[in-house]
From TrEMBL:
Molecular function via GO: flavin adenine dinucleotide binding; NAD(P)H dehydrogenase (quinone) activity; oxidoreductase activity, acting on a sulfur group of donors, NAD(P) as acceptor
Domain spans labelled Pyridine nucleotide-disulphide oxidoreductase dimerisation: 342-450
Domain FAD/NAD(P)-binding: from-to ranges: 8-322
Pfam families from the UniProt entry: Pyr_redox_2, Pyr_redox_dim
Highest taxon in the source lineage: Bacteria
InterPro entries with a match to the protein in the record: FAD/NAD-bd_sf (IPR036188), FAD/NAD-binding_dom (IPR023753), FAD/NAD-linked_Rdtase_dimer_sf (IPR016156), Pyr_nuc-diS_OxRdtase (IPR001100), Pyr_nucl-diS_OxRdtase_dimer (IPR004099), Pyr_OxRdtase_I_AS (IPR012999)
Protein name: Dihydrolipoamide dehydrogenase
Length: 475
């Protein structure tokens, strides 16, 4: 029997975006319902950021043992219990899960409805047997992995990020389709945990990142024994006894690769099929729900945030978009989802973090007026002490020194890039970073050194030397 709810806000989807918005709205005193038909916490907690970084951490420990002799400590090939490593992954998920649980959100005053949702009109949603009318709806249903249209792929078993962390048997040979963040992070983690790994990428590895920085990651992956195939067009996939075989066009002929397991990490699609968006007058494309700069859809009652709108598929941006909707829908303040910088980080070892424009993007927009400064990790004393000297900071500015973008490849790049996120968000010039006083010895000092390099040529020029000499003679 159908029951009815009258609400201020109905949030559809309990991933990072939906949880952030539901919590904020409820704590501001609104009547809020959160509809989720699958797992609380969404992709990030259950299949994405949390399990992948947990597995990477286990793999890092194994690699540290292999390389311990750099510090005068006996190195050894680690004994890896792959099932126990996966138990570690599940334990981390379990430790975080209460923060995203039904019980916590009900404690905040949110009505949690565990059922599929679909629009039945512009201002009404059915969630199971409950009809919901609300002043505002927020769609936050996220995305899912999709498989490329490769002949034979549907006829063989393969893993995605949604099934990978349920696999408790270490692959003998993992074939990875996709050389983006997910594919490369999991390729390196599995290699370090003892699997043979081959990566197949149709274009180039990490294609949206600065090629100079990507090359550092590429060299490390190859040095650890990961077989990399770029510009590799997959012709077909087929069974080979108990294994899976992939045939690729290498440009000089066909090559066949066989492995025990196949991981497909080659794209995602928005979760919109069950929503019946047309009933609510909500436009969408294959990339996601169409939104304006305020994250409002073509139905002014409805917002779409997180992966489902296809703008910036990162957990941190899901939370940021939730905050924008709270500002716009609750406080009636102007917002622009395109106004701020969108940082990203790939958690390989070394990490690669990027914010703002790459060098190529900056030159396309500003021509020859662009200035580029670099500083290698070899020039950082803390990196030397920790034997983590592979990588560099690369900063791009306009002719007046305003920061246009920054990329870092190296240890803890995801942390190091944050000062450049602030510089871009506040439209700072590079001199603001150069003038910071930072603790010594820290990896963060490398940002100050890179910024200082911008001024080196001018500071120590013959003209400056003449001025200093003249001032000194004045007494």
């Amino acid at each position: 029997m159908t029951s009815r709810l009258e609400l201020d806000i109905c949030v559809i989807g309990a991933g990072s975006a939906g949880l952030s918005l539901a919590a904020g709205a409820a704590q501001l005193g609104l009547k809020v319902a959160l509809v989720e038909h699958h797992k609380m916490g969404g992709d990030c907690l259950n299949y994405g950021c949390v399990p992948s970084k947990s597995l990477i951490a286990a793999a890092q420990v194994a690699q540290t043992l292999r390389r311990a002799d750099r510090f005068g400590v006996g190195a050894a090939e680690p004994v890896v219990d792959f099932a126990a490593a996966m138990d570690h992954v599940r334990a981390v998920i379990a430790a975080i899960a209460p923060h995203d649980s039904v019980e916590r959100f009900e404690g905040l005053g949110v009505r949690v409805i565990q059922a599929p949702a679909r629009f039945v009109s512009r201002d009404e949603v059915m969630a199971g047997e409950i009809a919901i009318r609300a002043r505002r709806f927020v769609v936050a249903t996220g995305s899912r992995p999709v498989a490329p249209p490769v002949p034979g792929l549907a006829d063989v078993p393969y893993l995605t990020n949604e099934t990978l962390f349920s696999n408790r048997a270490r692959p003998d040979h993992l074939l990875v389709v996709g050389g983006g963040p997910v594919g490369l992070e999991m390729a390196q983690a599995h290699r370090r945990l003892g699997a043979r790994v081959t990566v197949l990428e149709a274009a180039r590895l990490m294609g949206s990142d600065d090629p100079e920085l990507v090359d550092v990651v590429r060299r490390r992956l190859a040095s650890e024994g990961i077989e990399l195939h770029e510009q590799a067009r997959i012709l077909r996939v087929e069974r080979d006894g108990v294994e899976v075989a992939v045939a690729i066009d290498t440009g000089s002929g066909e090559r066949r690769l066989a492995g025990s397991h196949l991981l497909v990490a080659a794209g995602r699609a928005p979760n919109v099929e069950q929503l019946d968006l047309a009933a609510a007058g909500i436009a969408a494309t294959p990339k996601g729900i169409t939104v304006d700069k305020t994250l409002r859809t073509t139905n002014r009652r409805v917002y779409a945030i997180g992966d489902v709108n296809g703008l910036a598929p990162f957990t941190h941006m899901a939370g940021a978009q939730a905050a924008l909707v709270i500002r716009h829908a609750l406080f009636r303040l102007p917002v622009d989802v395109h106004a701020g910088p969108v940082p990203r980080c790939t958690y390989t070892d070394p990490e690669l973090a990027q914010v703002g424009m790459t060098e190529a993007q900056a030159r396309a927009a500003h021509g020859d007026t662009v200035r580029v400064v670099r500083w290698p990790l070899t020039g950082n004393d803390r990196a030397q002490a920790e034997r983590e000297t592979e990588g560099l900071v690369k900063v791009v500015t306009d002719r007046r020194g305003r920061v246009l973008g920054a990329g870092i490849v190296g240890a803890r790049a995801g942390e190091l890039v944050q000062v450049w996120c602030l510089a871009l968000a506040r439209r700072l010039k590079i001199g603001a970073v150069a003038q910071m006083v930072v603790p010594y010895p820290t990896l963060g000092e490398i940002n100050k050194r890179a910024a200082g390099a911008y001024f080196t040529e001018r500071l120590f020029s013959p003209r400056t030397r003449r001025i200093v000499g003249w001032l000194f003679r004045l007494g």
